[in-house]
Amino acid sequence: MPQPLDSALADVRELLLSPELTRAVAAGRRRGFTPSVTRAEVRPVTLKAGARLQIVTDDGSRPLTRNVTPGAEAAAAIDELLAQPFGNWHVETTAVTLQLRVTKKGDAQLHRAPVASSATPQDHDREKQWLLDPGDPLFQVIGGNAAKRRQIDAFLRALAATLPKALPSSLRVVDLGCGNAYLTFAAYRYLAERVPSVQVVGVDVREDQRVRNTAVAASLGCADDVTFVAGTIEDAQLPFEPDLVLALHACDTATDQALARAVGWQAQWVLAAPCCHHDVAAQLKSRPAPAPFGELTRHAIMRERFADVLTDSLRAALLRLNGYKVDVVEFIDSAHTPRNLLLRSRRTAAPPTEAQRAEYEALTSEWGVTPALEKMLP
Q1: Which residues are CB-contacts of 308 (< 8 A; sequence separation ≥ 6)?
Q2: Which residues are CB-neighbours of 121 under 8 A, at least 6 positions away?
Q3: What is the reported pTM?
Q4: Which residues pair with 66 in a beta bridge?
Q5: What residue segments make up the domains of the chain, in order of their start?
């Protein structure tokens, strides 16, 4: 339930000045206001001079670090931060994780959750293990088993590697084929700490998923920023053309539909983790392999695995022909999932070269296949 902002900020202040603080991040902006810095991070550190509260602020051009003495100096510095019109606060202590979000009406949505595992104050040079803390309220909703945490962390690291270090002031995101949307919410939680304004839309063909995911967004206090629509990947109507397109484990040619829409939108960044690859596999099965590659497709299991590689290679090639720089990387260790490739794409708008066109045409001609994505692109 919403509560007065002053009361919620008082709770944040108490935790920021608590000896149990481990880390806090402020980001985003309230409606109609702009903070003087885009992001602030607070954590306790131990220096040669003794215990300090470290405050790192970033104005978009460079970070500024202050190490203040506990007591009156720290209290004054924290009060300065709390006076900034940030839209989100995320505070972690050894006992609790607190998430504050300011609504469009200026009220506060406040969520508290016990930490998932014991946390200790960070040493000055120790890195955070997880990009999304296991104590985040999201895990109270979706569950936080080890496999799910690993997948979310691997996804967020891939997302971080795809986006530029200097993030834009606003970001519009669509997740095509979002399913139960736990990666959708993870992307939002991660980006909302780093980008002042984030809007996310999840698309799934099932109406019951839309209803469920909308309820989850409300319970997490982000229903204004994270919305869901029921519809097909090809036809779903969105309130904006996205900067970032996600397509994570869309089955078979649904991945191609998502990539085709991303190209049509001229999305700046695309992350796709293909799932099944039946389309090209069926084409390979219907004709003999070119000599001398018969052994690659003679056995069903080998043909299936080769179809996976060929399909994603052709998808990457088509994205390059349409102005994207593409990296194909491991999504998560294959011990945790058999479908573990991720296509990370960044739009450059570079025109294709004749060599790129010739290589693609030679590959499809040699194997006698026509990828679904080729037929979907203009």
Answers
A1: 274, 277, 341
A2: 21, 22, 43, 44, 94
A3: 0.71
A4: 55
A5: 5-125, 146-376
CA distance 270 to 255: 11
**Would you mind telling me the total number of residues written for the chain in this entry?**
378
**Top-level CATH class of 146-376?**
alpha beta
Helix boundaries (H) for the chain = 5-16, 72-82, 137-142, 146-162, 182-192, 207-219, 253-265, 278-285, 294-297, 300-321, 354-367, 372-376
Q: Are 119 and 22 in contact (CB under 8 A)?
A: yes
* Integer CA distances (angstroms), 8 to 2, 20, 98, 111, 130, in order: 10, 18, 10, 10, 26
Which residues is 108 bridged to in the sheet?
A: 3, 102
User: For residues 51 and 124, is the Cβ–Cβ distance under 8 A?
Assistant: no
Phi, psi of 67 (to 5 degrees): -115, 110
Q: What is the pLDDT of residues 281-305, one digit of tens each?
A: 899 988 889 999 999 888 988 888 8
